[in-house]
Design goal:
With 125 residues, the protein is α+β, with helices and mostly antiparallel strands. It has 2 helices and 7 strands.
Length: 125
């Protein structure tokens, strides 16, 4: 698979946003990595050092009953899941970049949009 984005750079973007998200009251899980070189099913790792050939990096975010997960793949697309927490809330399930691969600025915009689903400010240092 061709690498379209550097997942270490993506991890840096997510970490920068995660700091601001935590400051605004979101609960942000550890980054998780999937290793393309690992046998299937590929376990998720929190330690980047245990991943030889990163295929994806993701994060889980919560706020009260709201839950979201964002996974960015090295091919330039992402899986975005969000649920508002209410019994009648329909989940958001999207694959941004699947038809039009994202670069780092596109992923930055996606991170801002993801935070917006939780009603969070878009201000990131």
């Amino acid at each position: 698979m061709e690498n379209r984005v550097d997942l270490d750079q993506v991890a840096g973007l997510i970490s920068r946003h995660a700091f601001a998200w935590k400051q605004s009251g979101l609960v942000v899980g550890a980054l998780t990595w999937r290793d393309e070189a690992a046998p299937w099913p590929c376990p998720l790792r929190e330690d980047r050092g245990q991943v030889a050939e990163p295929d994806s990096v993701g994060v889980v975010v919560r706020k009260h009953r709201q839950e979201g997960r964002l996974v960015v793949f090295r091919g330039g697309w992402a899986d975005l899941e969000y649920w508002g927490g209410g019994p009648s809330d329909m989940p958001v399930l999207e694959a941004p970049g699947w038809d039009d691969w994202m670069d780092l600025p596109g992923i930055e915009r996606l991170l801002r949009r993801f935070a917006g689903l939780f009603g969070q400010s878009q201000n990131v240092p």
